[in-house]
Amino acid sequence: MWLANDGNYREMRYFTPWAKHRQTEDHYLPRMVQQVTGQVKVPFGDAVVSTADTCIGIELCEELFTPASPHILMGLDGVEIFTNSSGSHHELRKLNTRIDLIREATQKLGGVYLYANQQGCDGDRLYYDGCALIALNGKVIAQGSQFSLNDVEVVTATIDIEDVRSHRAVKSRSMQAAGAERYQRIEVPFALSDDRFGRAPTRFQDARFHKPEEEIALGPACWLWDYLRRSRTQGFFLPLSGGIDSCATATIVHSMCRLVSEAASRGEQDIIGDARRIAGEPEDSTYIPSDPKEFCSRVFHTCYMGTSNSSADTRGRAKELAQAIGSYHVDLNMDTVVSAVQTLFSTVTGLRPRFKVHGGSSAENLALQNIQARLRMVLAYMFAQLLPWVRGRAGGLLVLGSANVDESLRGYLTKYDCSSADINPIGGISKTDLKKFIAYAQTQFELPILEKFLTATPTAELEPITETYVQADEADMGMTYDELSIFGRLRKVEKCGPYSMFSKLVNEWGSMLSPLQIASKVKLFFYEYARNRHKMTTLTPSYHAESYSPDDNRFDLRPFLYPANFPFQFAKIDTVAQTLPERSQENASGMQE
Description:
The protein is an alpha/beta fold.
């Protein structure tokens, strides 16, 4: 009846919604089906199924999320059991919304809600997080796992249908039911219950929720495993820079190996079979991936690609992390490759570009940084293709990217650098959430090395380090990662343009910043967002985990050419900012008193 047709979904590409509410038509069956069933035709449309002991209604996926969900009228017309076959993707903090809606569906109406959700990678950017659930009269009585390597999980419960009827014995509900529009009932000659005694109803339980950092540890890890086994490649390759983003990607792969090891220890044969094939074992092998570190050494390859601009700190952190998780690690210096490209340019043009700290222009400085970044992408694919051969194995590796959602939104990445990969498990996750995940993994996965990543200043290390200058991400961007998350949510979720974003932030940030400072930050964000939007057209397919993802392929369909100076909006911001009172000074003086 109601299809999802925005955000990640384009269901109307393939389907047309049924527009005849509470009506059915005769559908004539193909002859081969007639021969099997003995039926010539079946009713097709919007109806409910009536058994000998109860009545069942069906709503699908998006219909649970709509304001006038079908279960409302069905429940008033006597439907006691609602089913929902859903394809609801994972997004951080989204499960709370889903379960709240299921509870609410049966809290006021009364009834049993059977919710089944797809589980696994959809062959694209989404991961469907399962969590099949049964609710009775607004309370959860059974809940499946939210993240699992298994393809199928069955959740059951025993209920007393009389509990639904007693819950509905309310006069106001009965008055509304008396005037409700009727559904056609499809009669079926069987019952869902029996007269046997001795089976107690399933007890109510509290709904289970993962913290966001746990969701990051589990969701992308399951997505990576699904992608790895279905692509039939031999593992992953990751440029490990010594920074927190590539550290987060590596830690997620480590989490994947832990999940595989746990499943193998439980004797789950499908997962053991996939693990043997990916690890290059022969068909008659008895190998069991019971040790996550050992399994990681077979399927995960990392590489530190250093230059003269790299520090001993990042090189050391990358090496220690690789040792801690067990990846096959390569440490190289690529200055000869960078120098060869610079020499080629100088030979052709007669000019040699210089970094800014050496007196070069901004154009020279940026070009020299991009040479290093793009060469890393070329080397990554070369090593991903040949490292299995080096280790005496067949096949190739999937290259993993490590650009987070905030850097993509701001455009703080080089087009066709190491952000260009086969897939990216953290491309839909904010820097703020990634830091929380690393802190969680430090204790849960017993990886003390992660503390060094948490305390390090994020830096691209593409410019020379001097006594007075060390490149830092937030200084380069002109805004903090926390601010970027706020800008992202206002732009996408709250649908704010420059002026409406400024209007909201003046109220939210007015006690900390002046209107002119807020205006400057908003204008800088939209300027950088607009002039870098073209980078989203080549963004590596990333795990969708955040509601403000700038993914141009499927989720955030917008132009990639904007007037970066936004003349009308910026002029209006400047005009209003000049007239607004300064509140940040008042707050500061109040705190001093």
